[in-house]
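re: that complex we talked abt at group meeting.

here r the seqs, copy pasted straight from the sheet so there may be weird spacing, ignore it
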Amino acid sequence: MSRVSTSRFSTELVRSCTDLVVLALLRNRPMYGYEILVNLADRGNGEFEFQQGTLYPLLYRLEREGWIAGSWETPTTGKRRKIYSLTAEGQKAERARSKEWTRFTRAVESILEECNHE
Amino acid sequence: MSRVSTSRFSTELVRSCTDLVVLALLRNRPMYGYEILVNLADRGNGEFEFQQGTLYPLLYRLEREGWIAGSWETPTTGKRRKIYSLTAEGQKAERARSKEWTRFTRAVESILEECNHE
DNA sequence: CGACATACTATGCGGCGCATAGTATGTGAG
DNA sequence: CTCACATACTATGCGCCGCATAGTATGTCG
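got the structure back, here u go
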């Protein structure tokens, strides 16, 4: 782990799309918190090494918003865990955010290119 | 103007790259605050309609950081204005952020695609 | 001269990532 | 068996920054 010197800039980047990324992950299949943490760390080339203090409050927020729903699982072996899955609302939200994200990044790109070529 | 109901999501998106966008703009040529405001509103399909309360503090911060330098212009006609231009440090910062931004968005895209196809 | 655009300054709120700390159960090496 | 470590969730407070809001002051144009 050992999150090396997170710059403010990368913090702001992460902050801009935590919701989106988690919602997208849950489109695949329901997951519990810790599983999401590990999954994100594996993908995304180390850009998404969420702290627990980032993820869990985020999950509470998404649940409060009605976009995900959690249910406790008490397996025969292993620790109890809260499994989160996308609601119908959440699926809609994910699609909307995904589109908005694409539109926005295109706008940024056009500004960057324009300014780097003249 | 009349910024219609800015959603939290788009606020977070904007927040993630205000520095980058302004630095990129100033790569072209020096500009004063109000000019930047208008320029950004024109490009980027309405994604960057900064409030004054967003831009000016941002400029102060970038100046404090040593990335831009401001000098007062008192034209024969018209209002006095503070012209900001990129410093050498600022150019380096712009390039670095630009790269980081690209790397990051690629990571997000890969997560989005992966999750939308399975 | 009054309305509106131009142009900058100043202050405070609110949301959220992160740091930090705490709780508690499961597992595996010795 | 026990101690270290991984797993898994809960809780609290700080700090940054976009935004809202308000204020000041000089141009321009009908």
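couple things i noticed - The mean pLDDT of chain A is 88. The beta strands of chain A are 31-32, 68-73, 81-86.
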